[in-house]
Design brief:
Elements: E1 2-4, H1 11-24, H2 37-48, E2 60-66, E3 71-78, H3 83-87, E4 92-96, H4 105-120, E5 125-131, H5 135-143, E6 147-156, E7 159-169, E8 196-197
Parallel strand pairs: 4-8
Antiparallel strand pairs: 1-2, 2-3, 3-4, 5-7, 6-7
């Protein structure tokens, strides 16, 4: 599996994964569920360039984890932090398709994502958050170098809950990427990652 730029050849698999997401997450935190796959491709390109951002959003890079034929997950890498993102969200968000939960795919995606950050983005450290009761996500963060700063209260559509805030220092990995539409391959994978956790 490798990180790629969102590509049309994976749209059918991406749409199938979004259906799984709808059935697996009681309160959706994924902002693009109402967009078609084609609309998402256009938005992802615009948002990375800082174009037509919704109020309160920051420029972000969107990458997909895929094998030769299937979409397995998505990562959004926020290039900066706002006051709101400091409370919840952090620098990176991700989701793994429901049928792939429990297979270590999230951990693999996180490793590759941090390698990308170290190679391409001017971030020395990154913030990631997850709900306190989401033990699986917390373990993934900690396995990948997350240092717990604190736990704070946050409110969302599901109510008020504790949020864990972690920081990870970003090193410069030894990476080799092939750039092109839908082509972004890893050569060596860092063992650290920064992310906002969405199971």
């Amino acid at each position: 599996m490798r990180l790629i730029r969102p590509a049309r050849e994976y749209l059918q698999s991406y749409e199938e994964a979004r259906k799984e997401y709808r059935s697996g997450v009681p309160v959706s935190t994924y902002p693009f569920l109402d967009l078609s796959g084609e609309e998402f491709l256009a938005k992802a390109q615009d948002f990375e360039q800082g174009k037509e951002l919704p109020k309160g959003w920051v420029p972000a890079t969107y990458l997909w984890l895929a094998d030769e034929t299937e979409f397995w997950g998505e990562v959004s890498i926020r290039h900066e932090l706002t006051d709101a993102l400091l409370q919840f969200g952090g620098n990176v968000g991700y989701w793994v398709r429901k049928s792939a939960w429990g297979r270590g795919i999230g951990t693999e995606m996180l490793r590759q994502t941090l390698a990308y950050i170290g190679e391409y983005l001017a971030l020395d450290r990154v913030l990631l958050t997850c709900n306190d009761e989401n033990i699986a996500s917390a373990r993934i963060i900690e396995k990948n170098g997350g240092i717990l700063q604190d736990k704070i209260e946050n409110s969302d559509r599901a109510g008020t809950r504790l949020t864990r805030r972690y920081w990870i220092s970003v090193g410069k990995p030894e990476m080799e990427y092939t750039n092109g539409e839908g082509n972004l391959h890893e050569h060596n994978i860092s063992s650290f990652i920064a992310t906002r956790c969405v199971k």
